[in-house]
Amino acid sequence: MEPERDEVYERIPWETLQQKGGERNWIVYAVAGAIALGALGYSFMRSQPEPPAPIDAGAETTVPVTTPPEPATPATVSPQPVASPVVVAEADLYAVDQGLYLQKAASHAEWFAVEFVSVDGDEKSRALLESLLPPGSPLPESEPGIQVFVDWAGAREVIQSGATTFEVEVLVRSLVSRDGALFTRVPPLLLAVPVELDGNGDPVISGLPSQRQPDPGQAAQLDLVEVPPDVVSTLGVEGEVLGGRQLPDGGWEVVVVGVGADGVRRPFTVRA
Fold this sequence. Notes:
By secondary structure, the chain is an alpha+beta fold.
């Protein structure tokens, strides 16, 4: 046999070249499409936000909350509860309505004045007066057979000398009986009673009272004129008309002397 020889064609069939070239083109297109898809996928992944980090269920999370700023308001001071007993400081006293302390001092001084002037021979009354006065203070003494009854007592003026100290002028009218005789009125007594506030803010007598001469003052002038008959007829009361005075609103104040239920004739004013 003869050895094989490589065949050499003088002409290459075109169908063969066209088929092989088509396979190479298909491979090129596939590679180019894969590259394009990969580029598009990479671009898409880059444009997506990163996923949030996993949250640990056992850990506490804090979420910031943004709130609009509130308008500034003036600071207020809330009253603080004070435990009892209270030690009243000077600043606290001035911060509270002073009218309350003046009223408490006046009423306590009136009570003391009644007990200080009254004399009935009862040991309980004497013990009460002793409890009102500072310890060791001397007590009033009276002769046997004397009884003093206080008709009325009223605070005329309260003078504050310090944050916790006051002086109260109390006017006292009393009746006196000697050896069982009838009670007779005595001139009014003006007592200046020292009062101060204790640690709880309660008034106490801080010393013995001083005695002063009461001054009734100058009474206003009462200028009466004749009252018209038609005004007198509208009064509706019985008595002697002494006169009257006309008021700025056109009315009248008429002074009439009449007899009271006790049989005493007294002058009094009637508004017409």
